[in-house]
Amino acid sequence: MTKEAELRQSKLLALAFFAGAASLFVLTLFLPQTWWTGLLRAFSEAAMVGALADWFAVVALFKRVPIPIVSRHTEIIPKNKERIADNLAQFVREKFLDTDSIVALIRRHDPVQKVAEWLVKPANTELLGQHLVRVGIWMLDFIEDKAVQGFIRRAVHAMVNSVDLSKSAGTILESLTRDGRHQELLDEGITQLARLLDNADTQATISQGIVDWLKEDYAFIESMLPSELIGRKGAGLAVRLASGILNKVAADPKHPLRQRFDTFTQEFIERLKADPSFAARADEIKAYLLGDETLNGYLGSLWGELKTWLKKDLHSEDSSLRQRLVATGAWVGKVLAEDPQLRASLSENLESAARGVAPEFAGFLTRHIADTVKQWDDREMSAQIELNIGKDLQYIRINGTIVGGLIGVTLYLLSHAPQLFG
């Protein structure tokens, strides 16, 4: 049975009680006027008064009753809609959304513990993975490819535009060279160069280079000299000289070459940060990147390739993403279940977050409730309230009929007490 039918049935029942009392009153007018007839009349009169009084009280809540003087105190709910909205919102805020209630709710239900208990069950983590995969597939189908491609392109362009390449490079180098760390790079370079010079293939290349130089620039002299021997000796000499210089630099932290390297590095950093020519060159690089068809084409196809791979993996029975989601969920559950300190810490943070968010959330929700109720149509609001509580209000009318009749009987008996006990 619908709410409308229940309300209609309860109204008819209340009306039937009133009709019964009225019928009894009319009947007593035609009966012989005895003590018992008077008793029945007193009952019926008081029952009608009680029924009508409660009918007025119930109807006055929702509608205007056109009775002089008292009519201005009818239609109570529509006239007080805004006050009802504010009071309702305030009631919800004070009784349900206050900070202490929300914190107590968190402590009572311990959501962190419940999440841990739920995740440690393999069936639940498998179910979670399946749901997340379905959501992922739905999102991939829902998202428009061109819009995402455009977003990626705009995001990359905005990022490139916002970066000062020259100053950024200078700042990065400055950080990398702080506390003489660039000297470590120089030491590593010296070590690698020494190994290269010590290599037989490198020395053979130097030797052949000397021979080729003699043949090209001094062909006549080269034809009369043992060029191969000169090349080998020259290569050995060059290697020994270079190795000697490198060893001195490596052994002396204050070697002039190191100092020149420091000076060069510092000047280069300053030029990167302040030299207009470097800044102009950086702008040229940015303009090239932003206008390069290859880069922009790659950015445009990046989402398509990623989406194709994601959809293929998510539709696969042995989806690697789903397996990782399941494994991650199981790991989180295991860690939470085995670490009471972590659970306690998360619960404390959750309570702290609730204390911080609850007032603002409560204020937003109560304003929403009040504003929504105030926007309702007066008659529609009354109709909805009556539809939901009107059935119970009709029993007030029924009870008023019965109680009124009993009061009438009581008063009748009291008025005839001297006759009964005299």
UniProtKB/TrEMBL annotation:
Superkingdom per UniProt: Bacteria
Chain ranges passing through the membrane: 12-31, 43-62, 395-414
Transmembrane as UniProt keyword: yes
InterPro entries named among the record's database cross-references: DUF445
Entry keyword set: Membrane, Transmembrane, Transmembrane helix
UniProt protein name: DUF445 domain-containing protein
Source organism (scientific name): Massilia consociata
